[in-house]
């Protein structure tokens, strides 16, 4: 109340001072204007009065006296006085208002100056304007004629201005006070109260309360900061509870905090650098705005939590159309946006380099070479030359970043940079370098068709550590090296020795960020019902299964659709009751093999839908676009099962992401035996995607599986993913790197 009163008084005083200043200026201007007009009118009337009426009468006193009375009234004079000399006054019109007789000095001044004089004087009823006209006569003494005009109306006008402005000031002050109080109440006090509620929610780590009300636009930056604090505090509280539970249960589960502490011990202030082709964040233009998004990538999904936990530097190709506008002079930017937990350095490659290095050698050569999916690899010399050049470009960037660093840790990602480890180690032998191969490694005969097999192997063996998802891929790699290079393969230690260089080869099954707090998290908001999700696409069905893949010939999408078709043929009772939803992200569509795959997947879905669809229902819903994790989550949660039919896959994190979303411990995972995840996820229904009958039978088994069995199986799968999470993966790799030269 005191604040409101003080605010009102302050507004009244402020508005009053402003109004006073403007009114004073207005009155000064108005008075000057009125005085000027009065003077001009008085002089004009006086001169005209004299010319028309006095001059022709030769100023004879008796005649003047007889006619001046009526004539003066016609000109609105209050009085007209004739002075023969200073001590002799003849009233031509007796004044109705007593007039102060001008002193001899004033008349002498007018007569001596032979000039008319004007002034304001006081009469009996108010102000009068006095105009003294001097008349010179031949051989006669001069006379002075004084005209008196009412000037009191000027004071009345000025007073009315004061009153009007006072009234306006009062009304304005009142209105401004009311409006200001409303604005303060709605625009300041309510947001302040909201901020107080946000801070309270942040202190309590209550993110759900923060999300109940949307922020005002001007409070949005503060809201984001407070939300970040709430998330951090909630995570800290959850981690504290988690650590307490881990100590109680004696479970050695890896968490971001545990990884951070482990890295402190291992790195000892040495720099950690991750190198990949795909960047974790890209900046793109949407209209006039620049937005930061996370591109779809299993590798990014796995590595990003590690950098957030440990900090360091991530070097990757800039691919967003606004990437150059968001980096500093050193091509760096702090990420994630608003958190700044690690640094991203962007490398710029030309369109020509992208065509040959990325689309050419990497994805038309190495990708089909390593994936046994019956697609012939293509090798061109020009593609290889650009592959070498881009690897050199990345090596120069890494060497620049580690200049002056002692024994930095460098983790190279995937098949795009097979040459990079050797390029780094040749110039910095003290650096600890590992390369993780995210895709399968084929048998020696298959890999031997590559014209630059030895160069690729020597490049990879420049690393201290080569990692794959499975032991099977490690064995294939060692057999390839054994048959292609002059080297010693130490099978008992899974290592390769070339000269004095020793490289270890180990399996590191990659995973996702899933910890005990996620495993034991209470169920969030009620999940969307399957019928409601399908209704959005005009489909009426009781349940659905889900598949989430890039549209890639290695993912077995047509094989998946054939299995769904066979399932409906064997179990027609599910027609109209069940739909299979496939979320497919278009990938590398500039390559013919990929565009052909997209066309084939489209055609197969259309064929099956045309064959089986009924009014308001279809067997397959193909959602062919990029989806964020938030968009996919409702499908993961509401699906009866997840179908992964990779024809050849390094790991496949979709299987683990599906498991992580099943907070109710229900649902079934159907998993290809050719995915690396099949080696870890015991309890999933393992299928051969080429076996249409077997895959159809697995779909039926998943739909008919008793709830008790689902609970038992999914509970075990979730605990497996928790124990072998991405933090455990990172700790295993980095500890292995540290131990090699330790």
TrEMBL record:
Gene3D superfamilies named among the record's database cross-references: Glycogen Phosphorylase B (3.40.50.2000)
Protein keywords: Membrane, Transmembrane, Transmembrane helix
Top-level taxon: Bacteria
UniProt xrefs under InterPro entries: Glyco_trans_20
Transmembrane segments: 6-25
Pfam family, one: Glyco_transf_20
Keyword Transmembrane annotated: yes
Keyword Transmembrane: yes
Coiled-coil spans in chain: none
Family statement drawn from the similarity comment of this UniProt entry: Belongs to the glycosyltransferase 20 family.
Protein name, entry field: Trehalose-6-phosphate synthase
């Amino acid at each position: 109340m005191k604040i409101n009163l003080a605010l009102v008084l302050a507004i009244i005083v402020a508005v009053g001072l402003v109004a006073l200043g403007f009114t004073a200026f207005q009155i000064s201007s108005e008075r000057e204007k009125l005085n000027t007009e009065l003077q001009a009118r008085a002089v004009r009337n006086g001169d005209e009065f004299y010319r028309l009426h006095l001059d022709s009468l030769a100023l004879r006193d008796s005649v003047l006296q007889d006619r001046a009375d009526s004539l003066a009234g016609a000109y609105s004079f209050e009085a007209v006085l004739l002075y023969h000399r200073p001590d002799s006054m003849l009233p031509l019109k007796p004044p109705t208002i007593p007039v102060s007789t001008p002193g001899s000095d004033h008349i002498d001044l007018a007569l001596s100056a032979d000039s008319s004089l004007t002034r304001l004087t006081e009469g009996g009823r108010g102000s009068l304007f006095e105009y003294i006209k001097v008349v010179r006569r031949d051989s006669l003494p001069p006379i002075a004629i004084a005209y008196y005009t009412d000037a009191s109306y000027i004071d009345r006008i000025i007073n009315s201005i004061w009153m009007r402005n006072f009234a306006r000031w009062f009304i304005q002050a009142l209105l401004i006070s009311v409006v200001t109080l409303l604005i303060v109440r709605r625009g300041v006090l309510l947001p302040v109260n909201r901020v107080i509620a946000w801070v309270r929610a942040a202190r309590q780590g209550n993110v759900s309360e923060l999300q109940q009300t949307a922020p005002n636009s001007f409070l949005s930056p503060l809201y984001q900061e407070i939300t970040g604090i709430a998330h951090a505090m909630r995570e800290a509280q959850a981690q504290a509870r988690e650590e307490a539970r881990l100590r109680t249960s004696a479970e050695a589960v890896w968490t971001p905090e545990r990884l951070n502490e482990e890295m402190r011990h291992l790195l000892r202030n040495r720099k950690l650098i991750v190198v990949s082709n795909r960047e974790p964040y890209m900046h793109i233009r949407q209209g006039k705005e620049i937005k930061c998004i996370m591109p779809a990538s299993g590798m990014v999904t796995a590595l990003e939590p590690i950098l957030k936990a440990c900090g360091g530097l991530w070097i990757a190709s800039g691919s967003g159309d606004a990437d150059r506008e968001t980096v500093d002079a050193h091509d760096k930017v702090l990420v994630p946006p608003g958190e700044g937990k690690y640094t991203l350095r962007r490398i710029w490659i030309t369109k020509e380099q992208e065509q040959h290095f990325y689309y050419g050698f990497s994805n038309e050569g190495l990708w089909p070479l390593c994936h046994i999916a019956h697609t012939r690899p293509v090798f061109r010399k020009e593609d290889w030359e650009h592959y070498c050049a881009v690897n050199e470009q990345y090596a120069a960037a890494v060497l620049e970043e580690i200049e002056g660093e002692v024994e930095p840790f460098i983790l190279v990602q995937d098949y795009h940079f097979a040459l990079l480890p050797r390029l780094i180690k040749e110039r910095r032998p003290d650096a600890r370098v590992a390369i993780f191969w995210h895709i399968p490694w084929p048998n020696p005969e298959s890999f031997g068709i590559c014209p630059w097999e030895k160069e690729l192997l020597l490049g990879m063996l420049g690393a201290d550590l080569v990692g794959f998802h499975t032991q099977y891929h490690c064995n294939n790699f060692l057999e390839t090296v054994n048959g292609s290079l002059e080297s010693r393969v130490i099978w008992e230690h899974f290592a390769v020795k070339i000269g004095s260089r020793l490289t270890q080869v180990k399996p590191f099954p990659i995973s996702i960020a899933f910890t005990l707090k996620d495993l034991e998290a209470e169920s969030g908001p009620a999940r969307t019902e399957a019928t409601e999700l399908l209704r959005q696409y005009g489909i009426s069905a009781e349940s659905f299964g889900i598949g989430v893949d890039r549209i890639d010939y290695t993912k077995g999408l047509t094989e998946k659709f054939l299995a769904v078709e066979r399932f409906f043929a064997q179990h027609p009772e599910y027609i109209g009751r069940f739909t299979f939803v496939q979320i497919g992200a278009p990938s590398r569509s500039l390559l013919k093999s990929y565009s052909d795959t997209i066309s084939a997947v489209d055609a197969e879905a259309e064929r099956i839908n045309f064959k089986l669809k009924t009014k308001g229902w279809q067997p397959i819903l193909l959602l062919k676009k990029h989806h964020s994790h938030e968009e996919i989550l409702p499908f993961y949660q509401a699906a009866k099962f997840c179908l992964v039919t990779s024809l050849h896959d390094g790991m496949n994190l979709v299987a683990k992401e599906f498991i992580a979303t099943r907070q109710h411990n229900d649902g079934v995972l159907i998993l290809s035996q050719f995915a690396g995840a099949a080696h870890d996820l015991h309890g999933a229904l393992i299928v051969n995607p080429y076996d249409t009958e077997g895959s159809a039978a697995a779909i039926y088994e998943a739909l008919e599986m008793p709830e008790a069995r689902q609970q038992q199986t999914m509970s075990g799968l979730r605990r497996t993913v928790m124990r072998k999470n991405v933090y455990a993966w990172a700790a295993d790799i980095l500890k292995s790197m540290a131990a090699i030269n330790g």
